[in-house]
Automatic annotation (TrEMBL):
GO molecular function: DNA binding; DNA-binding transcription factor activity; nickel cation binding
Function per UniProt: Transcriptional regulator.
Protein name (Swiss-Prot/TrEMBL): Putative nickel-responsive regulator
GO BP field: response to nickel cation
InterPro entries linked: Acetolactate_synth/TF_NikR_C (IPR027271), ACT-like_dom_sf (IPR045865), Arc_rbn_hlx_hlx (IPR013321), CopG (IPR002145), CopG/NikR_regulator (IPR050192), Ni_resp_reg_NikR (IPR022988), Ribbon_hlx_hlx (IPR010985), TF_NikR_Ni-bd_C (IPR014864)
Domain Ribbon-helix-helix protein CopG, chain residue ranges per copy: 6-44
Assigned protein family: Belongs to the transcriptional regulatory CopG/NikR family.
Domain of life: Archaea
Source organism per UniProt: Methanocella paludicola (strain DSM 17711 / JCM 13418 / NBRC 101707 / SANAE)
Length: 139
């Protein structure tokens, strides 16, 4: 049997409730099983991200609370610092608090990955996802 590590985390009640719904839908025997599966998925995504190299076209989707003023200015600074990668941005107000941005980028994969990771590092960002493809000429 593998050594088990125990951890304690703080999770907002609403998020935990949604996670419990997923656990029930998927038939997990416990929260621990669901968390282990989520960690494995996260590790696989990080492995994929580490292999994003060469000229790429990508879409970065980001969900955040617009009322967090420091967050918005921080996100704008990260975008400004990476403006050479950005082809266009779509900004959508989802409700009175939440916004979604879709940022279309093109550039060296490592630079796109670093840009995405800087967006992820902001504490109040709720979700960031990067998808990339090779430019058509290279497929």
């Amino acid at each position: 049997m593998q050594d088990l590590a125990r951890i304690g985390i703080s999770v907002p009640g609403r998020l935990m409730g949604r996670f419990d719904e997923v656990i029930a839908q998927r038939g997990y025997s416990s929260r621990s099983e669901g968390i282990r599966d989520a960690i494995r998925d996260y590790i696989q995504y990080e492995k994929w991200m580490s292999k994003v190299r060469g000229d790429r076209i990508g879409i970065i989707s980001i969900l955040y609370n617009q009322d967090k003023r420091k967050l918005v200015s921080s996100l704008m600074q990260v975008r400004h610092d990476n403006s050479g990668l950005i082809l266009t941005t779509i900004h959508k107000y989802l409700d009175k608090d939440n916004c979604m941005d879709v940022i279309i980028v093109r550039g060296e994969g490592g630079s796109i990955r670093a840009f995405t990771e800087k967006l992820m590092a902001n504490k109040c960002v709720k979700h960031v996802k990067l998808t990339t493809i090779l430019p058509e000429a290279e497929i």
